[in-house]
Amino acid sequence: MKQLVQITIVYSLLLIGLSFPAAGQLMYTVSGRVTDAATGEGIPFASIAVKGKIAGTTSDVDGRYSLRITQLSDSLLVLSLGYRTGSYTILPKTTQTINVQLTATATKLKEVKVYAKGGDPAYRIMREAVRRSDQFNPARLSAYQYESYTKIEGYINNFAQKRKNNKRPGPISRLLGRLPAITDENGQAAVPVFISETVSTFYARINPDKVKEHVLKSHVTGVGVSDGGLIAQLTGASFQQYNFYRNSLSILQKDIPSPLGKQWETVYRFRLKDTVILNNAVCYAIEFTPKRASDLAFAGTVLVDTLRMALAQIDARVDKRANINFVDELHIEQDWETTVSGVRFPTQTQVTIDTDEPTPRAPGALIRFFTASTNIIENKPKDVGFYDPSIELADDYREADAAFWQRVRPTSLSPSEWRAMQVVDSVRNVPFIKVAGEIIKLGVLGYKPLGKWNVDLGPLLYSYASNTVEGHRFRLGLRTNTGFSRKWLLSGYLAYGTLDQKFKYSANIEYILSRKPWTVIGVRQTYDLERVGVSADNIGNNSLFAAYSRFGTIRRPYFQEEKLAYFRREMGRGFTQTVALRNRSFEPLFPFAFQPQTKDPDQTLRSKYQITELISETRFAPDEVMLQNDNVRVSAGAIRKPIYTLRYTLGLRNVLGSDFTYQRIALTMKHSFRMGVLGRTYYSVGAGIIPSTVPYPLLYSPLGNESSFYVGNAYNLMNYFEFICDRWATVQFEHNFGGLLFNRIPGLQRLKWHELITAKVLAGSVSSDNLAVIPAVNDAGQTVEGFSSLTRTPYIEVGYGIDNIFKVLRVDAIHRLTYRDNIGRTGIPVTPFAIKLSGWVSF
Asked: What is a single Pfam family found in this protein's UniProt entry (predicted)?
């Protein structure tokens, strides 16, 4: 769900403009307050609807409501759980106030004696429901499977609001007002930009904890997206799992405590409202609210079966006071039913996310999710290997006609939903919207499709750079797509520098041997400029930092010609194995020399070398979800368990001209976990050793950062190539409090800032043999540039910062605690303290 929400938010950010009233429509406004007839208290979340129309709204936490409609009816209907439905006459006026008093339903609780020590009887009921939660939690099953239908809708809304001072509406709002639209529940125009329907079979096994979704059919229509396999996987049941019997629900990268979880009494207040009849069962209706309005927690009503004390229905909301970025309101409605084994299972789930506007009077976004689960089969686990891959597309998942979708939909579509499905195709073909869609795809993927050629141009991020070695660097990259082949992937680039006047290139051929399990084989040849200490091995997947490293002054540059052959296979149970044979050269453009290994009969100083390496990398990510974007595998991230990577490199002397025999072993672990109301912790640890004697470019160089931007996997106050190690251990730590403190400071809460702390530690050393490899001068008499190494004191930097500034910016204040006076062999003074910026869209 996170990816889809981010895409729709991009629509909202992209279509920012000032709005104006929809032309040609007379608007009627009905407002007022819904109260309890007996107590006079406001009734929150009451449903208000116009009789015979699809327009409607809900009351706020104080019972107040405001409804804007384009067509009048004779009466207003007001409904709330535990109350009789009220009907009130609507007058033919453009503005009117209707205050509503609802009477409690006839179904009442039996006499309950409330004592001072016992408090509200809701606590006794909830205590018993939580105590029995293990009895009804579907997670106690050894396995289960069900047929799933998922529908997702995305809209651009709030563009037809009146502007202050009668100013002329902005061009974007004027354009949106001319697009085909539907009328939402508040009588406002909404432009549909995304509609999807997915039918799948979802499987889960508890021990070991494995899930799998087999996507049978999928239909996707939207601006900037198509019926691609990646979208089909994102719109299925895998990302719509909401189990209120868990201690918390992971939604929009946030862990929200469940009112039926272990923190139920710590986080929430409860009030027994009434008893109601649901599916012929008498249920307690219990209202719950956060103890502190600013806490990231739900508010709403839960129905608990009076006989079994089991969850029957829940209506939960999180509003803007809970400080979720971009979200004005999150609303989850869920029905639970008893299965054959006696557990409770969520059979229908509706989620609505109403985003707030990125700027005042700018358009917003509305996203709706609906999931229905049928034909539940329990306690029949499949073999563990069956659950890999975790998401799989049927070969004919695109092939389904209108009659099929009509047959599989669990409920008939409302008039507005029918209208939205008809309108979205018209919207996506409007020239401006088509351009916006292309910009979205270019921003997300980084490639521009070249139509009938079945190739993509990019990544555009690397198209230009400027540095002291190459001057102006221009690069043209291409890759094939599935229109070219579903087995062969061809890619490469050609680059040229105006100062060094040299061409650089890369050519890669990859062949997909199998999609289940995912197995590929490939070869690559590259010739390009590199720099010591900033290589693809330590930059990782940080493409933005890799592009930045091509700019400015490049110290210790060298040319490298690389030939690589590799084989990668998903082994199941979260294991991915890669085996590669790599041959690469080192041609320095700076004074460099090394003493050959003692086994080499030629002891002449050398400035160039060649190395052939056999590489084995084992990656273990037990709960990682892998998606397939055409011919490329994409990670949707790990949820609860760490990711381990073990990499072993063996240098092969005299193989393909290799000059060295050496070994390198490195192990890393990455993980994140929730610390309750204190926020979320992210950390990684790593260690490695090179028990061989080799030139220092083959040793471990931690990634420094000389930019003004904060880089997550770098030491942000360490210079490039400041330290070298042949044995090392690292710890990188970050804890984000998620607004724990700022939410409690008047005036700061509305800014939605999040406070965080960071720490990074590196310990390491270099053997005396590797120190002795570097001579004082080379064969030309030039002084050889050496390197610095750590002593017994580790390198330490700590920081504190604020993110979510203007919803996209982050500011980090970082202190370097050790080696504050170190200049070393880099010749660049260190910075003991710095303020660094970064930015991304997060929740």
From this structure: CarbopepD_reg_2
- Whether 314 is in a domain gets the answer yes
The total number of structural domains in the chain stands at 3
Examine the pLDDT at 183 and tell me if it is beyond 70.
no
Q: pLDDT-based confidence at 108, cuts 50/70/90?
A: very low
Residues 515, 735: Cα–Cα separation, whole Å: 38
Report the pLDDT value the prediction gives residue 829, as an integer from 0 to 100: 83
DSSP code for 410: S
Give the whole-number percent of the chain exceeding pLDDT 90.
Answer: 38
Whether residue 410 sits in one domain with residue 358: yes
Domain holding 47: CATH number? Answer: 2.60.40.1120
Helix (H) or strand (E) holding 618: strand 609-620
Residue at a domain's end among 381, 411, 440 = 440
Q: How many whole angstroms separate alpha carbon 423 and alpha carbon 12?
A: 18
Give Cα 172 distance to the centre of its chain. Answer: 28
How many Å apart are CA 598 and CA 692, to the nearest integer? 12
The angle that helices 2-14 and 431-445 make with each other, rounded to 10 degrees, is 130
Q: Cβ(327)–Cβ(320) under 8 Å?
A: yes
Other Cβ atoms closer than 10 A to 328: 16
751 and 703: one domain?
yes
| Position with higher pLDDT, 36 vs 665 | 665
Residue 75 sits in the same domain as residue 154: no
Q: From the centroid of its chain, how far is CA 118? A: 43
Please give the distance of CA 814 from its chain centroid, rounded to a whole number. 26
pLDDT tens-digit map of 134-162: 999 998 999 999 999 988 888 887 765 55
Residue 703 maps to a domain = yes
Q: How many CA atoms lie within 13 A of 387 on its CB side?
A: 26
Paired residues of 491 in beta bridges = 479, 508
Range of the domain at 783: 659-843
Last residue of a domain, one of 385, 413, 440: 440
Cβ-proximal residues to 250 (8 Å cutoff; 6+ apart), any chain: 256, 639
Residue 748 lies in a domain: yes
Tell me, yes or no, whether 84 and 127 share the same domain. no
Q: Identify whether the C-beta of residue 766 lies closer than 8 Å to the C-beta of residue 726.
A: yes
Give the burial class of 729: count Cβ atoms within 10 A of its Cβ; 0-12 exposed, 13-18 middle, 19 or more buried.
middle
Alpha carbons 796 and 803: distance in angstroms, whole number: 22
- pLDDT band for position 83 (cuts 50, 70, 90): confident
Handedness of CA 21, 25, 26, 30 (dihedral sign): negative
C-alpha 137/C-alpha 206 separation (Å) is: 12
Q: Please indicate, yes or no, whether the overall pTM of this predicted structure exceeds 0.85.
A: no
How far is residue 248's CA from residue 679's CA, in Å, rounded to a whole number?
13
Average pLDDT over residues 708-716: 92
- 235/349 same-domain check: yes
Question: DSSP letter string over 727-764?
Answer: EEEEEEEEEE-TTTTGGGSTTTGGGT-EEEEEEEEEEE
Same domain, 34 and 183: no
Cβ(709)–Cβ(717) under 8 Å?
Answer: no
47/181 same-domain check: no
Coarse DSSP helix, strand, coil percentages of the chain, rounded to the nearest 5 percent? 15, 45, 40
Over 60: is that where the pLDDT of 163 sits? no
pLDDT surpasses 50 at 24: no
